[in-house]
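To: structure desk
From: M.T.
Subject: fold request, one chain
Message: Could you run this one when you get a chance? Sequence is below, nothing fancy, just the single chain.
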Amino acid sequence: MDLIAQATVEEQLGLDSAILAEQFYFWTVVFMWLIHVGFMSYEAGASRRKNMMASAMKNILTIAVVTPTFYYFGWWIYGCMQEGFIPSSTDDAFYGAFCKSTQPWGPNMGPNLGDNISGVFWGAFLLFSWTTGSIMSGAIIERARVSAYLLLTGLLGSVVWILDAAWGWSAGGWLIIHFGFHDAIASGVVHGVAGAFTLGVLLNVGPRIAKYGKDGSARTFKPHNTHLTLMGLMLIFTGFYAFYAACLVIQSTTFPGWANIYLSPSTLSAITFTITIGFAGGFTGGYFISKGDPFWTLSGGLAGVISVSAGADVYQPSLVYLLSIFGAVFAYWFGNLLETKFRVDDAVGAVAVHGAAGFLGMLYVGIFAAGFPTGLGNGGAGVNSSLLGQLVGMATFFPLGFLPGYAASWILRRMNLLRVPIEVEIVGLDYSEFDRDFYPEFAQIQEVIVMADGSEVAAGPLLAEAYAELKA
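Reply: Done. Structure tokens follow.
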């Protein structure tokens, strides 16, 4: 084959590879939409009837708010702040090209016919951003203002989590280069940080009216449709396969084939084993620790997968099964501790399932996968994961998530913009937001509260008592 023909073949193979990568990420974005269909259904089902539509609409408006903010500055943060809070110089030999490619005014962020990756790769990260907002959304249902939530989700989805991704979820992040941090499928980068941010918000938004009795006992509000909640979780699980796939890099220039986000070798088969067995182990742990409770059985599956996601590219399947079982058990224990001992009213257990399991996942890597390759390092020098690197990552991510969530929600609370008025919360957010009842055939007197001893009582008298105490 002459040199001209060989060059032509190589150019065609390169184009075919680029088109394949573009198609791959495009379809991961499509299927990741199921995660947000799931969050909408999950939260609507977990709400009481009087708050169902307000809970669902928050998830739709998440897309409306986070998409433009992520385009204009969220993606730029990821491309340009891998060394810290100060943006990299676009003249830097190692960071400059990627920084330029993420600037919203640059040629890569539009209909550039010479680029077959920027838009779809941006889209994959955008859907991760939506996920962080939806994690917070479920925790604060039934009492937070929609406007306050949208301000908070813009901060979380387009600033906070993407900053930690630049530091710990990229080949050039300082946590990887200097400490060997490893979080291949975002146990902490997405879920842990979103859980920490949510905890900060929950401390300011406070519990729902009548959640706790005078004796300190925790009561339970019966969801209006448990089946819808479980179906929403199953949709989230389906979309998680695309989430996992989007965390790999196709046709790496350093290693032929697949690589993880740190450009170390990986395969779709490896993550398929982890996610499938992780769900099975999580369901098992959730079922037994909760004594068969449907909500915690499925939530245990989610916690189990999140807890093994950080090392999903290197774990052996039998190890995945054991770790995911414990991940579900830990999330159940942590969720009950928050609710009963610390009186934090997390309506869907998001802090436990996403936050606690996410941080556990980072710790798992330091214990069970220290020494595995985690990145190329600056200039191509190999970097290995370590327990120290995981601990540094955890110590970095918790304040990075918690402090902005607490500070922003504290400001909103002081301005009386965080929580709906008492009267609105009792009547229901749907009537206040939409001036209608979406379930007119059900009277409010049918609302039921489950007491700490398991007995069910009509909500009306308890709400009236709580209202009188709050107004006194």
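Reply (cont.): Strands lie at 220-221, 249-250, 258-259, 373-375, 383-384, 448-450, 456-458. Let me know if you need anything else for the meeting.
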